[in-house]
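User: Could you walk me through two proteins back to back? I'd like the raw sequence and the structure tokens for each, with a short line separating them so I can tell where one ends and the next begins.

Assistant: Of course. Protein one, sequence then structure:
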Amino acid sequence: MAKLDLWKRVCAVLLLLVAMAIASPAQTFTTLASFDKADGAQPAFASLAQGLDGSLYGTTRFGGNNTSYRSKGYGTFFRVTPGGTLTTLYKFCARANCPDGETPQGGVVLGTDGNFYGTTELGGVLNFEGFSSSVFKVSAGGVLTTYPLESEEPFSAPVQATNGSFYGTTAAGGEGAGTVFAMTPQGTVTTLYKFCSTDSCRDGSHPIAGLTQGTDENFYGTTSSGGAANAGTVFAVTTGGRLNRLHSFNTTDGADPHAELIQASDGNFYGTTELGGANGGGTVFQITPEGTLTTLHNFCTLANCADGETPVAGLVQATDGNLYGTTELGGANGSGTIFQITTGGTLATLYSFCAQAMCADGEKPEAGLVQGTDGSFYGAASVGGTGNVGTVFSLSMGLGPFVKTLPTFGNVGGSTDILGTNLTGATAVSFNGTPAAFTVVSATEITTTVPTGATTGFVIVTTPSGTLTSDVAFQVGR
């Protein structure tokens, strides 16, 4: 009952945020930066991550070191400001034999320590089974530390759980079909589950997507193949490694999911499949924590797939309550789209790539979107741009600024960072109405502690320019 009441409060605040959103007659698309191989090439699958300084951070799978015509390079870690200043912070394979890793496919996530965490598909130090993939920690200044994995081919960044440890997946290793792993903040890695542990891989195989921790503390994810029809699965797994297959895709309802799920404000999970559906162009789906799946949209419903095709990336729920995502192909120019879809399944195509001469705006976005605390969306296209090796872009829908908390949970007395825009001069911070002491660190960061008497609810920051509300409810006592 308490969880149900919480979701009702979440929905009520989201409706309020929708009412407060700034009206916009049209969206504004901006190309922020183009890669040139030396500073990176082909941005990775995962969404960008906003740092404590308000900038966006991510990885490219190629470019950086050794970008001669014989080599694509080994990948980079980069920062781009909302104004478009691109800085390469680390070039992988900077050491002999690549013990620092190479080909970081899965982007990065921001940890509670202010560092970023990701994975490299290749490179790293060989373990006793001959695998050489790794998890890495990298500071906002580019100082990198690597931790070897017990399996191989991680294609996504690990997620930091409420217990402080990191959890992720690999597409290979284990019994050959991938694993779920845990890593302590100190770098100790443990394999929790090995896929294909059941006959004919009915539990799924080759998880390309990372994990999402639900409000029930379990992790939710997908496999790209396996299951009853060998079209992939949705699963839940506990921190102890007990896995429950929730759904097997059957091609008609989708196939080959590649991206992380998100848990929306209604408590359900939402995701995409790269292929399958009624028209073979992929789907957007909703699935309950118990495993009831509903297909919300089948791509390629319009002539020549004008609504998009092949959604490789996942979704983000914005402060207006809608879901936003990208497709790698389709759209007006066949080079991918940005779309908006309601939780009820009404889809609108917002932007079709290759709208600019020579595709200077980018094409084939494999990464999803992140909503920055300024209200705009940020993403990356895998090719196109002036260097034809990818771009970083923004899309404004006229949504107003808000704040994020890091982490989104905590106990009374625990420390929490608040990320935002124009926080200088803030006069008040409250947790679900309970005032909290705080320190303004910069225009983009406030440090605070969860006050005595705080209960689960939204964090509100009062600034000279207005009141800012957190995008999700802060969970007290998790």
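----
Protein two, same layout:
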Amino acid sequence: MKIGNVALSSPFAVAPMAGMTDTAFRRLVKRHGGCGLVVTEMVSSEGLVRGIDRTLEYAEYTEEERPVSIQIFGGDPDKMAAAARIVEGMGADIVDVNMGCPVPKIAKHSAGCSLMKEPRHAARVVNAMTKAVRIPVTVKMRAGWNDRSRNAPELARMVQDAGAAAVAIHGRTAEQSYSGCADWELVSRIASELTIPVLGSGDCIEPNHIIGRMSHGVRGVLVGRGVLRNPWILAQAADIAAGQLRREVTFEQRGQFLYDYVELLLNERVNEREGFRHLAPGTDAHPGPARGRERWVINKIRALCSWYSRGLDGGSHLRAQVNTAATLGELRDVIDAFFFSAPAPA
């Protein structure tokens, strides 16, 4: 499929999840195959325009991740257009507009899903951005703000008319957050009404779920929580789509993924303002600023394991052990004991 002039090798993509889908995680998923597009964690348009270092870090990516979409949020058309130009200047393939985040601290500033309550204003934001850049502008939205305002079909048509190159629909309302079930019939109806590509999102936990969603007429599927539980899910879905048996993932491979994630996090570019510095792989006991870096990596693994351990026999035990690890050495011992030393659970 293509989004504007950007060709995707697979219709399956990594959805943006704040605090989770960082560049290190996206790279590892990409290496396993089946991933046609990665989308960054959402980035503040205000922070981009003001050049705030922390904001710029969220927008970082590597060549290995291409094609890559940088997702931005905000409600001011001029600032969103300026932020889109910055994204284009950073070399991103696509710039995406967040109209789906239900978190109050985002939505209360006329950004995220609250833009769905002002469809004409939302369309003006998209129009300002498409006039400002040459790369494709896409939109990720929800079914609506609540069940009384499920206006995704109308808004999708409006942003298409405003110049959007594709839209992604999560089939829940902002009020639902992640409760209940995603409305894929609504997603299917929108896909049948638009001329631009429509991607769907929601409730894809198994590779077969992704394949089944493609039958709803969408051009692609964005996977968020499912890829946190199983970073091989896109590759497995691609296997099935190609008429092959889906690849099996061993317990050791799951353990190695966590090791690889730790090493990539340790070797990321360091924000000197936060007092961090590079650590060589395998070092975890340096005093001073490096201890802050170590704590940051441990917290990242804890966050991932809250999803990664689901469905594993003994997963609650793994979460408990990871959450009590105080150093990277202890964390590696936990990973080794669970994935490599004990008989493999189901």
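DSSP finds 15 helices and eleven strands in the chain.

Let me know if you want the two compared in more detail.
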